[in-house]
Amino acid sequence: MSEYSEIYLAGGCFWGVQKYLASIKGVISTEAGYANGKTLNPTYEEVCRNNTGHAETVQVVYNDEYISLDELLNVYFRAIDPTSLNRQGGDVGTQYRTGIYYVNNADRPIIDSAIAKLAEQHDKPIAIEVKPLENYSPAEEYHQNYLDKNPGGYCHIGEHLFQDLDE
Question: Residue 133 has what pLDDT?
Fold first, then answer.
Protein backbone atom coordinates (compact mmCIF):
# COMPACT_ATOMS: atom_id res chain seq x y z
CA MET A 1 0.00 0.00 0.00
CA SER A 2 1.35 3.41 -0.94
CA GLU A 3 1.55 6.45 1.27
CA TYR A 4 -1.12 9.06 0.75
CA SER A 5 -0.43 12.44 -0.81
CA GLU A 6 -1.49 15.85 0.43
CA ILE A 7 -2.23 19.22 -1.10
CA TYR A 8 -3.72 22.39 0.36
CA LEU A 9 -6.48 24.08 -1.67
CA ALA A 10 -7.98 27.51 -1.05
CA GLY A 11 -11.20 28.42 -2.81
CA GLY A 12 -13.13 31.00 -0.81
CA CYS A 13 -15.03 30.09 2.33
CA PHE A 14 -13.62 26.76 3.52
CA TRP A 15 -17.00 25.39 4.62
CA GLY A 16 -18.15 24.57 1.11
CA VAL A 17 -14.69 23.76 -0.21
CA GLN A 18 -14.18 21.18 2.54
CA LYS A 19 -17.54 19.50 1.93
CA TYR A 20 -17.00 19.50 -1.83
CA LEU A 21 -13.47 18.06 -1.69
CA ALA A 22 -14.45 15.48 0.95
CA SER A 23 -17.06 14.20 -1.52
CA ILE A 24 -14.48 13.26 -4.15
CA LYS A 25 -13.72 9.57 -4.54
CA GLY A 26 -10.10 8.96 -3.58
CA VAL A 27 -9.97 11.76 -1.00
CA ILE A 28 -9.10 10.19 2.35
CA SER A 29 -9.53 13.20 4.64
CA THR A 30 -9.98 16.96 4.67
CA GLU A 31 -9.43 19.62 7.30
CA ALA A 32 -10.35 23.31 7.24
CA GLY A 33 -7.56 25.65 8.22
CA TYR A 34 -5.50 28.74 7.60
CA ALA A 35 -2.46 28.73 5.30
CA ASN A 36 0.49 30.91 4.39
CA GLY A 37 -0.11 33.78 6.77
CA LYS A 38 2.17 35.90 8.92
CA THR A 39 1.27 34.26 12.24
CA LEU A 40 0.94 30.75 13.62
CA ASN A 41 -2.32 29.41 15.02
CA PRO A 42 -4.54 32.40 14.24
CA THR A 43 -8.17 32.51 15.26
CA TYR A 44 -10.92 33.04 12.71
CA GLU A 45 -11.46 36.54 14.10
CA GLU A 46 -7.77 37.38 13.65
CA VAL A 47 -7.81 36.13 10.06
CA CYS A 48 -10.91 38.21 9.29
CA ARG A 49 -9.92 41.41 11.12
CA ASN A 50 -6.16 41.61 11.65
CA ASN A 51 -4.71 41.30 8.14
CA THR A 52 -2.78 38.13 9.04
CA GLY A 53 -2.36 37.18 5.38
CA HIS A 54 -3.86 33.70 5.78
CA ALA A 55 -6.06 32.02 3.18
CA GLU A 56 -8.98 29.88 4.27
CA THR A 57 -7.62 26.55 3.04
CA VAL A 58 -8.53 22.89 3.04
CA GLN A 59 -5.87 20.26 3.69
CA VAL A 60 -6.63 17.37 1.33
CA VAL A 61 -5.14 13.93 1.91
CA TYR A 62 -5.78 11.70 -1.07
CA ASN A 63 -4.89 8.32 -2.53
CA ASP A 64 -2.97 9.13 -5.70
CA GLU A 65 -3.42 5.57 -6.91
CA TYR A 66 -7.17 6.31 -7.09
CA ILE A 67 -7.18 9.98 -8.13
CA SER A 68 -4.21 11.82 -9.58
CA LEU A 69 -3.27 15.33 -8.55
CA ASP A 70 -4.20 16.51 -12.05
CA GLU A 71 -7.68 14.98 -11.73
CA LEU A 72 -8.12 16.41 -8.24
CA LEU A 73 -7.14 19.89 -9.45
CA ASN A 74 -9.60 19.70 -12.34
CA VAL A 75 -12.43 18.88 -9.91
CA TYR A 76 -11.28 21.77 -7.66
CA PHE A 77 -11.24 24.17 -10.64
CA ARG A 78 -14.95 23.46 -11.24
CA ALA A 79 -15.81 24.73 -7.76
CA ILE A 80 -14.07 28.11 -8.02
CA ASP A 81 -13.94 31.17 -10.25
CA PRO A 82 -10.25 30.91 -11.14
CA THR A 83 -10.15 34.47 -12.52
CA SER A 84 -11.53 36.19 -9.41
CA LEU A 85 -8.94 37.86 -7.19
CA ASN A 86 -9.61 37.71 -3.42
CA ARG A 87 -13.26 36.84 -3.93
CA GLN A 88 -15.41 33.73 -4.28
CA GLY A 89 -19.17 33.96 -4.28
CA GLY A 90 -20.27 36.62 -1.80
CA ASP A 91 -17.03 36.45 0.18
CA VAL A 92 -14.51 39.23 -0.38
CA GLY A 93 -11.05 39.63 1.14
CA THR A 94 -7.57 38.17 0.89
CA GLN A 95 -8.55 35.24 3.15
CA TYR A 96 -10.95 34.15 0.38
CA ARG A 97 -8.30 34.05 -2.36
CA THR A 98 -7.83 30.94 -4.43
CA GLY A 99 -4.60 29.07 -3.92
CA ILE A 100 -2.82 25.79 -4.39
CA TYR A 101 -0.19 25.19 -1.71
CA TYR A 102 2.01 22.15 -2.18
CA VAL A 103 4.30 20.21 0.15
CA ASN A 104 5.95 18.02 -2.47
CA ASN A 105 8.14 19.89 -4.98
CA ALA A 106 7.40 17.17 -7.56
CA ASP A 107 3.79 18.45 -7.59
CA ARG A 108 4.77 21.88 -8.98
CA PRO A 109 5.06 20.85 -12.66
CA ILE A 110 1.69 19.06 -12.45
CA ILE A 111 0.11 22.16 -10.92
CA ASP A 112 1.70 24.46 -13.51
CA SER A 113 0.48 22.24 -16.34
CA ALA A 114 -3.06 22.15 -14.93
CA ILE A 115 -3.08 25.96 -14.55
CA ALA A 116 -1.83 26.38 -18.14
CA LYS A 117 -4.66 24.17 -19.46
CA LEU A 118 -7.15 26.09 -17.32
CA ALA A 119 -5.85 29.41 -18.69
CA GLU A 120 -6.64 28.25 -22.24
CA GLN A 121 -10.33 28.08 -21.24
CA HIS A 122 -10.52 31.68 -19.95
CA ASP A 123 -10.14 35.14 -21.45
CA LYS A 124 -9.12 36.72 -18.14
CA PRO A 125 -5.87 35.89 -16.33
CA ILE A 126 -5.92 33.06 -13.80
CA ALA A 127 -5.80 34.45 -10.25
CA ILE A 128 -4.94 31.22 -8.41
CA GLU A 129 -1.94 31.65 -6.14
CA VAL A 130 0.54 28.75 -6.44
CA LYS A 131 3.15 28.50 -3.70
CA PRO A 132 4.84 26.00 -1.44
CA LEU A 133 3.00 25.60 1.86
CA GLU A 134 4.77 27.96 4.26
CA ASN A 135 2.56 27.33 7.29
CA TYR A 136 -0.80 25.85 8.13
CA SER A 137 -2.97 25.86 11.24
CA PRO A 138 -6.22 23.91 11.63
CA ALA A 139 -9.32 26.06 12.00
CA GLU A 140 -11.40 25.95 15.14
CA GLU A 141 -13.49 22.82 15.69
CA TYR A 142 -16.77 24.55 14.86
CA HIS A 143 -15.46 25.15 11.31
CA GLN A 144 -14.57 21.47 10.74
CA ASN A 145 -17.15 19.75 8.52
CA TYR A 146 -19.37 22.77 9.12
CA LEU A 147 -21.93 21.95 6.45
CA ASP A 148 -22.35 18.41 7.79
CA LYS A 149 -23.11 19.88 11.22
CA ASN A 150 -25.24 22.70 9.75
CA PRO A 151 -27.14 21.43 6.70
CA GLY A 152 -28.39 24.40 4.75
CA GLY A 153 -25.54 26.59 6.04
CA TYR A 154 -23.87 29.11 3.74
CA CYS A 155 -22.04 27.64 0.75
CA HIS A 156 -20.82 29.55 -2.30
CA ILE A 157 -20.43 26.34 -4.33
CA GLY A 158 -23.44 25.51 -6.47
CA GLU A 159 -25.45 22.48 -5.38
CA HIS A 160 -25.25 21.07 -8.93
CA LEU A 161 -21.50 20.49 -8.47
CA PHE A 162 -22.15 18.21 -5.51
CA GLN A 163 -24.71 16.30 -7.57
CA ASP A 164 -22.18 15.93 -10.41
CA LEU A 165 -19.82 14.17 -7.97
CA ASP A 166 -22.50 11.60 -7.17
CA GLU A 167 -22.88 10.57 -10.80
Answer: 98
Is 60 exceeded by the pLDDT of residue 1? no
Looking at the 3D structure of the chain, how many domains does it have? 1
155 assigned to active site = no
How long is the chain? 167
Q: Write out pLDDT tens, residues 86-109.
A: 999 889 999 999 999 999 999 999
The CATH number covering residue 109 comes to 3.30.1060.10
Q: How far apart are CA 19 and CA 10, in angstroms?
A: 13
Mean pLDDT (the chain, rounded): 94
What is the amino acid identity at position 117? K
Task: With H, G, I as helix, E, B as strand and everything else as coil, classify residue 21.
Answer: helix
For the chain, the farthest-separated pair of C-alpha atoms sits apart, in whole angstroms, at 44
Instruction: Give the domain range for residue 134.
Output: 5-166
Residue 105 CB contacts under 8 Å (≥ 6 apart), including other chains:
132
SS (H, E, C) 95-163: HHCEEEEECCHHHHHHHHHHHHHHHHCCCCCCCCEEEECCCEEECCHHHCCHHHHCCCCCCCCCHHHHH
Q: In whole angstroms, what is the distance from residue 52 CA to residue 71 CA? A: 31
* Selected catalytic residue, list 9, 10, 13, 47: 13
